[in-house]
Specification:
Layout: E1 3-5, E2 15-17, E3 21-22, E4 29-38, H1 41-48, E5 57-58, E6 62-70, E7 82-85, H2 95-98, H3 107-111, E8 117-119, E9 122-126, E10 136-140, E11 144-146, H4 153-159, H5 162-174, E12 181-185, H6 189-200, E13 205-209, H7 213-221, E14 226-228, H8 233-241, E15 246-251, H9 256-264, E16 266-274, H10 288-294, E17 297-300, H11 308-320, E18 330-335, H12 339-348, E19 353-357
Parallel strand pairs: 5-9, 12-13, 12-15, 13-14, 15-16, 16-17, 18-19
Antiparallel strand pairs: 1-2, 3-8, 4-6, 4-10, 4-19, 6-7, 7-11, 8-9
Helix pairs in contact: 5-6, 5-11
Length: about 350
C-alpha cells in the first residue's frame, strides 16, 4: 500500500512509497482504511524534531476512515463502520481516567513506541501511534471511535484533532464567560476552532492575532470581532480593554516567545490558556513577583482538556446544528501523492487546514 514516509528527523519532504505494509493486527486491534486526513502543525513539529517521535515514521494523526477488519475481542466495531482515529485513547483504568481526566491517560503514548508499519527496509513508526498519511493503519480498537455514517470523512478527520483541541480549549479548559474579552494568538485550524468556541460561549470581543493576512481575514468569518497582526496587538488591547488586558488569551503557536506575549496581554486575574505544542527545551520565563502579584491563571490544554469521546460527540452535534463551521476550515485539498504541497501550504500559512484525500 502507499504511505508518506519521513526517513530521518529534520527532513523537510516526505517520500510517498508503495511498498509499505500496516502491521500488528490481532486481538483487540482494528484495521482501518484511511479515507481523509488533515495536516496538523504537530506533524511538522514531529518532522523537525520539536516533538519527540522515533524515525523513520509515517506522519499524520488527524484522520478518518472505515473499518476493514476487527480483531478478536473487539465488540464495538465491525467492518464497514465509519470511524475517527483518536491518537490519545483512554484506557479507562489508570489513575487519570479514574479521576475523569481521560485526556491525561498515557496509554496512547505507549503506542507511539511500537512500529505499526513495515517495508522491505525495516520497521516504520506511526506518528502518535497512528500514522494517517497511509492508505491503511492498524490501531488499538480504542483508537477507532465510531461516528454516524452521514458524517463526511473530511469533516470527521478535523474532529480527530484540530477542532477538538481548539473548541475544547475554549469550552472545557477556559470555560469562557459570556461578555468577556478574548485574544487568540495563532489562527490556523486550531486557533480558528478556539475562536469558534469563544463565540459559542458568548465572548463579547474576540481578537484574532496572526501574521498572515489571509488567516486574519478568515478569523473574522468564523466569529472574531477584529483581527490584527502581532505588531497591532498592543493597539487592539488598548482599544478593546482600555489597556488592562484581555480576560482570556489563547496561545496556539507553541513557542515561549508567544506564550510570554500572551501572558503580558492577559489582564491581572485573567486566564492564559496554552494550547500550542512546543519543544522540551523552550522555556517560558516568569518572575516570582509577577506570578504572585498579578494572579493570572495559566492553564495548559491538552487535546481540548476534556473527555475526548464526549468532545467528538459535541463537535458533531454543534456542526449538525450549524453552530460551528467545519467545512470552511478546509481551504485546500490534495491527494496523498502531493503531500509535500500540503506541507508547503502549512509552512507558509496559506492553509487553515489541508485535507489529504486518500
Amino acid at each position: 500500500m502507499r504511505a508518506a514516509v519521513l526517513h530521518e528527523i529534520g527532513q523537510e519532504k516526505l517520500e510517498v512509497l508503495d511498498d509499505v505494509e500496516a502491521v500488528g493486527f490481532g486481538p483487540g486491534k482494528v484495521r482501518v482504511r484511511v479515507r481523509a486526513t488533515g495536516l496538523c502543525h504537530s506533524d511538522l513539529s514531529a518532522m523537525s524534531g520539536v516533538l519527540p517521535q522515533p524515525a523513520p515514521f509515517v506522519p499524520g494523526h488527524e484522520g478518518a476512515g472505515e473499518v476493514l477488519e476487527a480483531g478478536d475481542g473487539v465488540r464495538h466495531l465491525k467492518p464497514g463502520d465509519r470511524v475517527v482515529l483518536c491518537w490519545l485513547p483512554a484506557c479507562g483504568s489508570c489513575p487519570a481516567c479514574k479521576r475523569g481526566q481521560t485526556q491525561l491517560c498515557l496509554a496512547g503514548f505507549m503506542n507511539a513506541g511500537t512500529p505499526n508499519f513495515r517495508r522491505p527496509g525495516g520497521d516504520l513508526f506511526g506518528f502518535a501511534g497512528t500514522g494517517t498519511f497511509a492508505e491503511e493503519v492498524v490501531v488499538d480498537a480504542g483508537c477507532a471511535v465510531p461516528i454516524p455514517q452521514d458524517v463526511p470523512y473530511d469533516i470527521a478527520a478535523l474532529i480527530g484533532c484540530g477542532v477538538t483541541t481548539g473548541l475544547g480549549a475554549a469550552l472545557n479548559t477556559a470555560d469562557v464567560t459570556a461578555g468577556s474579552s478574548v485574544a487568540v494568538i495563532g489562527c490556523g485550524g486550531v486557533g480558528i476552532s478556539a475562536v469558534q468556541g469563544a463565540r459559542l460561549k458568548g465572548a463579547a470581543e474576540i481578537v484574532a492575532v496572526d501574521p498572515v493576512a489571509s488567516r486574519r481575514e478568515a478569523a473574522l468569518k468564523f466569529g472574531a470581532t477584529r483581527a490584527v497582526s502581532p505588531e497591532e496587538l498592543a493597539g487592539a488591547r488598548q482599544e478593546v480593554t482600555g489597556g488592562e488586558g484581555f480576560d482570556y488569551v489563547f496561545e496556539v503557536v507553541g513557542r515561549s516567545a508567544t506564550a510570554r506575549t500572551a501572558y503580558e496581554n492577559t489582564r491581572r486575574g485573567g486566564t492564559l490558556v496554552v494550547v500550542g505544542a512546543g519543544a522540551m527545551d523552550d522555556f517560558l520565563q516568569l518572575n516570582m513577583f509577577e506570578l504572585f502579584f498579578d494572579e493570572k491563571r495559566i492553564l495548559p490544554s491538552l487535546y481540548g482538556g476534556g473527555d475526548v469521546l464526549r468532545s467528538y460527540e459535541r463537535a458533531i452535534a454543534l456542526w449538525r446544528a450549524g453552530r460551528i463551521d467545519l467545512a470552511g476550515l478546509i481551504t485546500h485539498r490534495v491527494p496523498l501523492a502531493e503531500i509535500n504541497e500540503a506541507l508547503d501550504q502549512m509552512r507558509t500559512g496559506t492553509a487553515l487546514r489541508t485535507c489529504i484525500e486518500i
